[in-house]
């Protein structure tokens, strides 16, 4: 996804050849061209899936079934966010991919929880600093009174 406005999202297929640590770009499509995501079998964990574009049909294989699920969740979320008109059809996909238990929602919940904890910690620290400032002011006043009394003597 680009950071220019309007944002443009694309899907890029890469391949890693045996014995190599790098990836090679194979094909690329704009997200708007995606018409269908086919998980092939929602009852079986397999890394294979198909993507149907405007003028192309492409078979894909993820590294693992779990990575396929993650890819589908990110792809579904990206389509919901960036496509206003024709959204692709997700077929033969496990229901958890479109549901509320996606990794994106879990990540958002984790971030929200971390922000709430940090906010609470900051509030508590602010209260302690406020009490320390009050105590410092009391000590300062007491020291001034002592100095005035000592100066008189």
UniProtKB/TrEMBL annotation:
UniProt keywords, alphabetically: Coiled coil
A Pfam family assignment: Sec3-PIP2_bind
Source organism, top-level taxon: Eukaryota
GO biological process per UniProt: exocytosis; Golgi to plasma membrane transport
Residue ranges of every copy of the V-SNARE coiled-coil homology domain listed in the record: 100-153
Biased composition (Basic and acidic residues): 127-140
Disordered, as annotated region: 127-153
Keyword Oxidoreductase among record annotations: no
One of the record's GO cellular component terms: plasma membrane
Gene3D superfamilies listed in its UniProt record: 1.20.5.110, 2.30.29.90
InterPro entries xrefs: Sec3-PIP2_bind, V_SNARE_CC
GO terms, molecular function: phosphatidylinositol-4,5-bisphosphate binding
Name used for this protein in its record: STXB6 protein
Encoding gene (name): Stxbp6
């Amino acid at each position: 996804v680009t950071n220019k406005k309007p944002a443009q999202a694309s899907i890029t297929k890469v391949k890693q050849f045996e014995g190599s640590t790098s990836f090679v770009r194979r094909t690329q499509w704009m997200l708007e061209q995606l018409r269908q995501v086919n998980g092939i079998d929602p009852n079986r964990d397999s890394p294979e899936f198909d993507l149907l574009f405007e003028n192309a049909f492409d078979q894909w294989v993820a590294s693992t079934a779990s990575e396929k699920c993650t890819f589908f969740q990110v792809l579904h979320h990206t389509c919901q966010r960036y496509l206003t008109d024709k959204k692709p059809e997700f077929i033969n996909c496990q229901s958890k991919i479109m549901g509320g238990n996606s990794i994106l929602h879990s990540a958002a919940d984790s971030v929200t929880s971390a922000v709430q904890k940090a906010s609470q910690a900051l509030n508590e620290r602010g209260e302690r600093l406020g009490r320390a400032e009050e105590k410092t002011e009391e000590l300062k006043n007491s020291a001034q009174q002592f100095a005035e009394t000592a100066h008189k003597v």
